[in-house]
Write a structure and sequence with these properties.
With 300 residues, the protein is of the alpha/beta class. The protein has 10 helices and 8 strands. Helices cover 39% and strands 16% of the residues. Helix 4 (120-135) links the parallel strand 4 (107-115) and strand 5 (139-145). The chain is globular and about 55 Å long.
């Protein structure tokens, strides 16, 4: 299981200084995988287009880093939350060259992002780019794919070992949409905190993810009410980390979900980063294996 640092809020609710602090701690703890996308942050402010990757590049250059494993999602043409994209062979290869130059040995994977196409012929051209990217030693991935069935059909010839990002949390999951690819730990879960849910309404602040995305921070959702009723029983086991926040619950549920091979996290504070790493290490030691069935039984 991989822990992957996300960058979706960088340059939006998170200034560069804070991003650097999180990167420093994440790196010092031995983690290397970072997820980025051309259109991050998706805050509808055109001048911030590609700002997240610029922050990451600055940190790499400042620290002389050459051993990251960056997942770069490409295809989106703006950060305005529109479906506009370009996944043609030439555009993908142009992006490959650019990110090879920008990130050097730190570039690990190229993922197509937000593919709403339904044409098999158009998607087949993307597979031609995949072949070249794969031959150059980079991993391939998919994120936000409208027609997983077409990708699966075309992949019968090439057998690419795609890693696939899916939204997956206690409220919603895209896992079943990708049933063609079930059977191994190829899936990377994002959105595990359901847009930034918290157990305590008083914990939300102005820059909370849920606020930034237009969510309601004044109402306690039914799921949170259910969690409050079971947390005391979960915490009866004094030999493990006490569960005190929604991120811990989300990590437990995601870690034990079928076919999940990576968890994409987006802490906004150093304390959140420390807590995420703490629960991740506990999960690797099977400390919460008994909790997953309980969470599955109450999921919405």
């Amino acid at each position: 299981m991989d822990l992957i640092l996300g960058t979706a809020m960088w340059g939006w609710t998170m200034p560069k200084k804070k991003c650097f602090q999180l990167l420093d701690h994440y790196y010092e703890k031995g983690f290397r995988q970072i997820d980025a996308a051309t259109n991050y942050p998706i805050n509808k402010i055109p001048k911030d287009f590609r700002r997240a990757e610029q922050i990451l590049e600055e940190w790499i250059l400042q620290n002389g880093i050459s051993d990251l494993r960056i997942i770069m999602k490409v295809g989106s043409l703006n950060n305005l939350r529109t479906p506009d994209h370009n996944l043609s062979k030439s555009f993908l290869l142009m992006n490959l060259d650019e990110y090879k130059f920008k990130f050097g040995n730190n570039l690990d994977s190229i993922m197509v992002h937000w593919d709403n196409r339904t044409s098999k012929e158009e998607i087949e051209m993307t597979f031609e780019a995949f072949q070249i990217i794969n031959d150059q030693g980079f991993k391939l991935g998919l994120s936000g794919i409208k027609r997983p069935d077409i990708y699966h059909q075309l992949n019968q010839k090439t057998a690419f070992d795609f890693r696939i990002q899916i939204k997956h949390n206690l409220l919603y999951s895209d896992y079943e949409r990708y049933h063609f690819f079930h059977g191994n730990q190829r899936f990377i879960a994002y959105g595990i905190n359901a847009g930034g849910l918290k157990l305590d309404l008083n914990s939300y602040h102005q820059n909370s993810s849920l606020n930034a995305r237009g969510g309601d921070t004044q109402v306690l959702p039914p799921l949170i009410q259910k969690l409050h009723s079971i947390i005391p029983d979960i915490n009866k086991n004094s030999k493990r980390v006490a569960v005190t926040n929604f991120n811990q619950i989300a990590m437990i549920y995601t870690f034990h979900s079928p076919d999940i091979g990576g968890i994409l996290v987006g802490p906004s504070k150093l304390q959140q980063m420390e807590g995420t790493i703490e629960i991740f290490e506990a999960l690797k030691n099977e400390a919460f294996a008994d909790v997953f069935p309980i969470l599955s039984s109450i999921k919405s």
